[in-house]
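B., you asked whether I could sanity-check this one before it goes into the benchmark set. Here's the sequence:
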Amino acid sequence: MNRQHCARPGGLAVHLRFAIGSLLVGVLSSACASAPGHTEARFYPELPEQPRIQYLTTISSQEDVRPTSAFRRYVVGTPQQPGLQRPWAIGHDRGRIYVVDKGLNQVVIIDLDERRFDRLVTGGQAALVEPSGIFIANDGFKYISDAGRGQVLEFDTENRYTRAFGSQEQFRPLDVVVRGGKLYVCDVRDEEIEILDRESGEVVGRIGHQGDGPGAFRFPTHLALGSDGDLFVTDLMNFRVQRFDAEGNYVRDIGEWGDFPGAMPRPKGIAVDRKGNLYAADAAFEMIQVFDTETARPLLPFGKFGTGPGGSYLPSGVHIDYENMDRFSRYLAPGFTPEYLIYVANQAGPDKLNVYAFGHWEDPNPGQSPEPVPVPAPQPVPGQGEDAPDH
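And here's what the prediction gave me:
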């Protein structure tokens, strides 16, 4: 009896080890089944043309930059993560992406190094009512256009509020860019671009007026700067983007009404790369078109309507980033050499912020370029994770 009684603890230990082992096997099996797999690499244009743009990944919530470990998902389920609702405009500095979210009426900060979501601290004098545009100057100061407040808010390099531009009823700003000592404010109410002195806030000039001729606007919404200092303005109801030189003189139209390549039935956000190529989002075509700004000739469309890798759903903001390519290098297909990143904000659908890379194949013969290959998705951190539109 005593021997039998004394043997039971050993038997119990065996059963416990077996049970724990079975549990661990289940967890590991679940981990293998639920860990992020691969994101299919997509290229534009498709082979046999020489691909120039690769879709890399999508960021919609903190889970996309810091996945919850499979063990934690197995034990407690997937926690709710901070996410984007209706991203509209985009900016960046080293290691961070700033997204103006019109669903949250906030500026979401995606910290690529810390792999977490944060928000610009606002409230009181810095309260946001209806933010719609963002520009980050070379000195690191941020400028947020707030159509609801009727002002442009300034934040310093530490993201602390410093002041606001614009008096009561001065303008309804949808976007802002900074060039030198001047702010260029897209005023949809008076359908013009107001130029402010960056130090005093005084109006020092204006570009455009209401109308449909060269240099006139009907519902201007977005701004972009070229590397040569030229200003580009989305002229929504004239179905075009207008280009002005550094002195504010009209240069040319890009786009027109229609349903063919190069038309802009519903233009939104714009960006210009260092070579002078214009990227223009169109919410009717549900894609981004690339134009030669010297000739206004369409070069390449990319994106597609709907969900899935590279899908577009009411695209609004477009932004180019030369600084953070290393943060996305793990997504690059072998043989594809990137030059810069392209961010596209989608107002609707599950894929909120698409990330692309513009580059080239090392193989000069596109016919010999490799077929699109699976690109690894980010791995989980063990134990961590906690129309017409209004503008």
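One thing to flag: Confidence is low (pLDDT under 50) at residues 1-38, 366-389. Otherwise nothing jumped out at me.
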